[in-house]
Design a protein that fits this description.
The chain is mainly β and 256 residues long. The chain has two domains: 163 residues, Methylamine Dehydrogenase, Chain H (7 Propeller), CATH 2.130.10.10; 88 residues, no CATH class. It has one helix and 19 strands. The strands form five sheets. The protein has a four-stranded antiparallel β-sheet. A hairpin with a 2-residue loop joins β1 and β2. The longest helix is centred in the middle third of the chain and has 12 residues. The protein is globular, with a radius of gyration of 18 Å. It starts with 9 loop residues before the first strand and ends with a strand.
Length: 256
């Protein structure tokens, strides 16, 4: 299936059951219905950044707390802002599709998270709470200054978690995995960041000062993928590099 709808380059794509979310240079985030009924149609157009394209895109994995098909979408734009959207259920999307046929795109962002960190957001990820309540979610942003920030969806407060060396500036890859701590009844959110020279840094968001440095070759880390481990406190980190190799590490949240 080929999807056409953006007016310029597509920078980021995220998949969700029955839906595809894409963000591009045209400053739009499009929601596509890829179910058998939808046939790849655009059912929602999210526009709210002041200027420039959208390079960072995150989509919640959990349903909203009322168990409907609502999804939370976070976008980071070239204007230096981070926006949070709620994509409604099928009925609301059909209404939005009708508005688009009439030339009325959804242009108002649900929430401006008032990002105050240094640099432009390059990667955005949402760390969800265990109750599927969006208000308990945290948004993690990696900027073109090699810095990783964490912000709350409610109060708009942003904290610097980690600052990388110059190799992490201008380019970064970042992914997050949630696992259980081995020695304690709580969860840990493991954040992995890759750079232009094959370096990676992995840390728990709750303890960013206790990180682990890894090596994934000599060139650019093109992508990172987390996979669940055999144990609930562990995961596999895969990194694809410029030399055509994929490196894999087994990482545990031991606690402490």
């Amino acid at each position: 299936m080929a999807l056409y709808g953006h007016q310029a380059r597509v920078f980021s794509v995220r998949l969700s059951p029955g839906k595809v979310y894409s963000a591009g240079e045209d400053g739009c985030c499009l929601v596509w219905d890829c179910s058998s009924r939808g046939g790849g149609k655009v059912v929602r157009t999210l526009k709210g950044h002041r200027a420039g394209g959208i390079r960072a895109l995150a989509v919640s994995e959990e349903r909203d707390e009322d168990r409907t098909r609502r999804r939370w979408v976070a976008t980071g734009g070239a204007d230096g802002g981070v926006r949070l959207w709620r994509v409604e259920d099928d009925d609301a999307e059909e209404a939005a599709e009708e508005e688009e046929r009439r030339g009325k795109a959804a242009t108002e962002a649900l929430t401006d998270l008032e990002f105050s960190g240094r640099g432009t957001p390059k990667v955005v990820r949402v760390v969800e709470g265990g109750s599927a309540n969006w208000a308990r979610s945290q948004v993690v942003v990696c900027t073109d200054q090699g810095a990783v920030y964490q912000g709350c969806c409610v109060d708009g407060q942003w904290d610097l978690l980690w600052q990388g060396d110059p190799a992490y500036r201008s380019y970064c890859a970042m992914e997050i995995l949630t696992v259980r701590v081995k020695t304690a009844p709580r969860k840990a959110h493991l954040c992995a960041v890759g750079n232009l020279s094959g370096g990676l840094h992995v840390f728990a968001i709750s303890h960013p000062q206790c990180g682990l440095s890894l090596r994934g070759g000599d060139g650019k880390i093109h992508s990172l993928v987390w996979g669940k481990g055999h144990a609930p406190h562990a995961g596999y980190l895969l990194a694809s590099g410029a030399n055509g190799l994929v490196h894999r590490w087994h990482i545990e949240a031991a606690g402490g």
